[in-house]
TrEMBL record:
Protein name, per record: HTH cro/C1-type domain-containing protein
Source organism: Phytohabitans houttuyneae
One term of GO molecular function: DNA binding
SUPFAM superfamilies hit by this protein: lambda repressor-like DNA-binding domains
Domain HTH cro/C1-type: 8-40
Family annotation (InterPro entries): Cro/C1-type_HTH (IPR001387), Lambda_DNA-bd_dom_sf (IPR010982)
Family matches, as Gene3D superfamilies: lambda repressor-like DNA-binding domains
PROSITE patterns linked to this entry: HTH_CROC1 (PS50943)
CDD domains: HTH_XRE
Amino acid sequence: MEDFGKMLHRLREERGISLRKLASLSGVDHSNIGRAEKGQGGLSEQSVTYLDSALRADGELVEAYRASSGHEGRRGPAQRGARHDPEDLVRRRILIQQAVTALAAGTAGPALNAIRHGLVSSVTGREPGDLDVDEWEQIAHDYGVAYFTEQPAALIRNLAAELADLQGELNLVPDEEDIVHKGLSRSAALLAAVMAMSLVNVGEFQQSRLWWRAARQTADASRDPAVRIWVRGHDAMHALYDHRPLRAALARAGEALAIGGTTAYSGSGEALGAQAQTLALFGRADEARTAVSQLADLYERLPGDVTQDQGTIYGYPETRMWHSTSYVHTYLGDTAPARAAQESALTLYPIGRVRARAQVQLHTARCLVLDGHLDDGANHALAVIDAVPPEHRTAMVLGVGHKVYNAVPSSERTRPTVAGLREILALPAGTAAQ
């Protein structure tokens, strides 16, 4: 195998990247990169992981590092105590700052990629440490609450900082069978999924798909079926909003339901709801209605702590069932049962759940259009979107708005009311009309 230092130099030259540029992309000090290229060491395996990601080496650079260091399959001495290593802390903070700056400029991909890559690679950490699993579970819980109310862009910035720290914690865990490793992986999966959801909200669809992958990998590392199902259920649901093929949503929902078997989990409800909604979009009406009936049956079997959890994204309260039911009947054109489901959902949704309430109200607007009340439907949709604070006018909310517009016959889209709806939908997520 090619020497690590030579490979590092070759990859950098092939990509036309200077030492300082690579340092900026990876968060690794440029002088340490230069010494490594000369075979003088100075890099930890975690730093090499970031370099591998920045150079798009698909793991080859990490393999070369391990081979050159003579410790394939385990972490080297430089990794021990990494949690307290000043350079490691500085590097992770640089990555966080890059992610924040890039997000503001709309180019968050590379910085978020580096954090995500490190998180996934951390799943195979080998060094022990004094880690507080309960603390990370509380952090994950807090973000499950914040998801409903905090601005998505701010949530992404905060999550980037948390995940950068958590990947350092995971690096210190002895092995994948260790109870601490599993506990931290559980929290990592939940946080990575909230990151993916938030990226969908701001319209960063490609990044969100990568983070869903990271969430699935860390969920699998936790060996917790509830987490594995929950991540896949929400992945399936969000696939309906991030421009993925419908078959991808159906496949992910199927994975979640297969893992759960006959046991009812919170994620089972989300997966079955996503399956029903996808079938409705496919036009497979009988199957979609059957799935809605199955969802109602499953809801009755869910534990009380799951159905009563209205405050975090991790539960499956009655509102979620009615939301999915409204979606299915709306897109099948069954406007009477759709309106009944909408009334139930809006009665139960807390006033503070602005985005979810707006989506259900937009289902109502689409029903008005389908029933031939074009101006009323367009006006209702416009009023709903206009009432949503700009910072919560997410890609998911606007996506449902587009479905209202698309329900209007092409020949009727010159109506002033419909033109007004089209105008507000043309704005990027998170912005207001002038």
